[in-house]
Design goal:
Radius of gyration of chain A: 17 Å
CATH topology of the largest domain in chain B: TIM Barrel
Number of domains of chain A: 1
Shape of chain B: globular
Largest sheet of chain B: 8 strands, parallel
Strand order of the largest sheet of chain A: 1-2-3-4-5-6-7-8
Order of helices and strands of chain B: HHEHEHEHEHEHEHEHEHH
Helix content of chain B: 40-55%
CATH class of chain A: Alpha Beta
CATH topology of chain A: TIM Barrel
CATH superfamily of the largest domain in chain B: Metal-dependent hydrolases
Strand content of chain A: 15-25%
Order of helices and strands of chain A: EHEHHEHEHHEHEHEHEHH
Helix content of chain A: 25-40%
CATH architecture of the largest domain in chain B: Alpha-Beta Barrel
Largest interface: A-B, 48 and 50 residues
Radius of gyration of chain B: 19 Å
Number of helices of chain B: 11
Number of strands of chain B: 8
Strand order of the largest sheet of chain B: 1-2-3-4-5-6-7-8
Oligomer: heterodimer
Distance between the termini of chain A: 20 Å
Strand content of chain B: 5-15%
Distance between the termini of chain B: 12 Å
Chain lengths: 256, 304
C-alpha cells in the first residue's frame, strides 16, 4: 500500500502535463500502486477565488472511489476573510487538511496571520501542508519568479502548538540539515521525498530525519511518479522503514 | 562483469525488493509475481549512465567508485561514465587538470571495467588541455572530453580542442545551462554549444543537462545533428524526454544522472516515466552512448 501525500489536480499554467486531467492522473496512480493521494489544486496557487477552487477540488475528489483522493484545500492568509476558507475546508468539505503556498501567495512564515491560521488548524485538527517550492528556481518563467520558502520559522510555531501536524512539501532539495533537525525536534513535522536527491538519498537522509517522519510524495503531475517509486529501490531499506514511509506514517498522521 | 551478469543482478534485486515489500504489506502478491516476471513498470533495460562524478563516500577514487557501483547495481546500471576529480575547480590550472584526471584514471582502473573516463580540460590553457587529451585519451583509457564552466564554449580557444577530439574519435561533453537566476561568467548555454557545433560539423557533441531549462535547450540544439541532448541534473519534470524525442529524435537523447549529487532514481524516472516507445527508451538508456563510443572503442581495441 502506498499513500502519496503530494499530488495536484488541474493545470500548471506554463506547461501541459501528461497527468493534468483527472482520469489520466487516477490511472497513473493506480498503475504505480498508489492507493491514496492527498490532493490540492494548481488553481489554488494562482486564483484569487480560492473558495471556488476548494469546492471544485472537493467535487473532483468525490468522483473517485472513496479514500482514493483526499482533498487538501488551500488557504491564502493574505486574502480578505481567509478564516472563512478554513471553516469551509473543515466543516463543509470535510477536508483532513489544508495546503499553503507562502512563496506564491507572498508571505513569510513569521507573518502573524500564519500563526493564527496554524492555531485554527490545531484547534480543528487539520493537517497543514506547507509548500517550500514547486519548481527549480533557476528554470522559472521569467514573468513568474518565486523564491523558495525558508521553513526555519516553522520550528518555533510548531513547538508552541504541540497538537499541530505539519507536512513540509518539496523541501528536501536545498533545506539545510540543521533546519531539518530543528523542525524534527520542534514537534509533529513530516517531510516527503519527491525532491530528495543524491544517490541512495533516503538512506542518507535517515541520519538527519528519522524514518517515522518521512512520507511518500511524488509531486505528480509536475514530476513523473516513477521518481519517488524508484527512490524506494535505490536505498537499502528495511521492511519496517518501507512500510513506515509508504503508508504507515501517513495513516498515523492522518488519524491524529 | 558482463551485461548478462548485471541483468541477473538487477532482476534479483527487484525480486528481493518486491519480496520485502510484500512482507511489509506494501506490495501485493500480484506485484511480487510481476517483479519475478520482470515487471512492465521497471523493465530489464540495459543502462549506461552517461554523466557522474567522484562524489560518493570513500577515501580514495577506488573506494568512491566501488561505493557508487554498489548503488548502481541496485538500479540495474551496468556502466558509468565519470569525469572530474575532487575538489572541483571552475577554472582548473594545468596542475588541477592533471590531479583531477589522475583521480578519474584511478577510479576507472578500480572499477572492474565498468567505468569509463572523460578527460577534464580548461580551454583557457589550450596547450595543457591538448597535452591532457594526449595523455589520457591517446595514451590512456579515457574515451571523451569534458568541458565545464571555465569558458563559454563558443570562444575560439575551443577550436583546437574540438579538432583534436575529432581526430581521436572522442565525443565532447559540454555542460550547458540557461539560468533565469544568472549563469556563472564562463558557463555555457545550449545556444553557445550550437554555435560551436556549427563550426565543427564532423565533431560529436553532448549537451549535458540539455541546457537545464530543457524547453529552451532542446530548441537551441535541434538544428545541429551532431549534438545529442543528455538529460541529467534537473528535476524529474514530466514532459522533458517526450519533448526531446519529439524534436530531436530518440537517437539524439541520452540518459545520465549527474551522480552522486543527483539520484539515479529521479533521473532514470525521466525515461521510465516518459510516454515514448520501448525502443526509444532502450536507445536513450544505453543504445545511443554505445553507438557514439563505438568508433573510439574500436580505435583503442576495447569491446563494448
Amino acid at each position: 500500500m502506498i499513500v502519496d501525500v503530494n499530488v495536484h489536480l488541474s493545470r500548471w499554467p506554463f506547461r501541459r502535463l501528461a497527468c493534468d486531467e483527472l482520469p489520466r492522473l487516477i490511472e497513473k496512480l493506480q498503475a504505480g500502486g498508489v492507493d491514496q493521494a492527498w490532493a490540492a489544486s494548481f488553481d489554488a496557487v494562482f486564483h484569487k477565488d480560492v473558495a471556488a477552487v476548494n469546492s471544485r477540488l472537493a467535487a473532483d475528489c468525490r468522483k473517485t472511489r472513496p479514500g482514493m483522493l483526499l482533498p487538501f484545500g488551500t488557504v491564502n492568509p493574505t486574502l480578505p476573510d481567509w478564516r472563512e476558507d478554513v471553516r469551509r475546508c473543515h466543516e463543509e468539505h470535510k477536508m483532513p487538511g489544508v495546503r499553503l503556498y507562502p512563496g506564491y501567495h507572498g508571505y513569510a512564515l513569521d507573518a502573524p496571520e500564519l500563526a493564527e491560521l496554524l492555531t485554527m488548524a490545531e484547534e480543528r485538527g487539520l493537517v497543514v501542508q506547507v509548500v517550500v517550492r514547486l519548481e527549480d528556481t533557476r528554470m522559472q518563467h521569467p514573468l513568474m519568479r518565486v523564491e523558495d520558502v525558508d521553513p526555519k520559522p516553522l520550528a518555533e510555531l510548531v513547538a508552541a502548538r504541540p497538537k499541530l501536524r505539519v507536512v513540509v512539501l518539496n523541501a528536501l532539495k536545498g533545506v539545510r540539515a540543521g533546519v531539518l533537525a530543528a523542525l524534527v525536534a520542534a514537534g509533529q513535522v513530516y517531510f516527503e521525498i519527491s525532491m530528495l536527491e543524491g544517490v541512495e538519498g533516503i538512506a542518507n537522509l535517515l541520519g538527519q530525519v528519522p524514518a517515522e517522519r518521512l512520507l511518500f510524495g511524488s509531486h505528480l503531475p509536475m514530476f513523473v511518479l516513477e521518481s519517488a517509486l524508484l527512490k524506494l529501490q535505490e536505498s537499502e531499506l528495511t521492511a519496517a522503514q518501507i512500510e513506515a514511509i509508504t503508508h504507515g506514517n501517513a495513516e498515523r498522521l492522518l488519524n491524529g | 562483469m558482463n551485461s548478462s551478469d548485471c541483468r541477473v543482478t538487477r532482476r534479483a534485486v527487484l525480486v528481493r525488493a518486491a519480496q520485502a515489500a510484500v512482507a511489509a504489506g506494501v506490495a501485493s502478491r500480484c506485484q511480487l509475481a510481476a517483479a519475478e516476471k520482470s515487471p512492465a513498470r521497471f523493465p530489464d533495460y540495459e543502462i549506461w549512465d552517461m554523466h557522474g562524478h567522484l562524489t560518493s563516500p570513500g577515501a580514495t577514487p577506488k573506494e568512491k567508485i566501488t561505493n557508487l557501483l554498489r548503488a548502481a547495481d541496485r538500479m540495474g546500471i551496468e556502466r558509468v561514465i565519470v569525469f572530474m576529480g575532487y575538489p572541483w575547480t571552475y577554472e582548473p590550472t594545468p596542475d588541477d587538470m592533471r590531479r583531477e584526471n589522475d583521480q578519474v584514471l584511478e577510479a576507472v582502473a578500480g572499477s572492474g571495467g565498468r567505468a569509463y573516463g572523460f578527460v577534464y580540460v580548461n580551454p583557457r590553457h589550450t596547450e595543457a588541455s591538448l597535452a591532457e587529451m594526449d595523455r589520457c585519451i591517446e595514451g590512456g583509457p579515457m574515451v571523451g572530453v569534458k568541458l565545464w564552466v571555465a569558458v563559454r564554449c563558443f570562444e575560439e580557444c575551443l577550436d583546437p580542442i574540438v579538432e583534436r577530439a575529432t581526430e581521436l574519435k572522442a565525443p565532447v561533453l559540454q555542460h550547458t545551462w540557461y539560468k533565469i537566476t544568472g549563469n556563472l561568467p564562463g558557463e555555457s548555454t545550449a545556444g553557445d554549444l550550437a554555435i560551436l557545433a556549427a563550426r565543427h560539423p564532423k565533431a560529436t557533441f553532448i549537451a549535458a543537462h540539455t541546457g537545464g531549462d530543457w524547453e529552451l535547450g532542446i530548441r537551441a540544439i535541434r538544428g545541429l545533428p551532431n549534438v545529442t541532448a543528455e538529460i541529467c541534473g534537473g528535476n524529474p519534470t514530466a514532459g522533458f524526454v517526450e519533448m526531446a524525442v519529439r524534436e530531436l529524435g530518440a537517437e539524439r537523447v541520452m540518459y545520465g544522472s549527474d551522480y552522486s549529487g543527483r539520484s539515479f532514481a529521479s533521473q532514470l524516472a525521466k525515461v521510465y516515466g516518459a510516454d515514448i516507445s520501448e525502443e526509444a527508451k532502450r536507445l536513450i538508456l544505453a543504445g545511443n552512448i554505445k553507438r557514439m563510443l563505438a568508433p573510439i572503442f574500436k580505435a583503442k581495441g576495447m569491446t563494448l
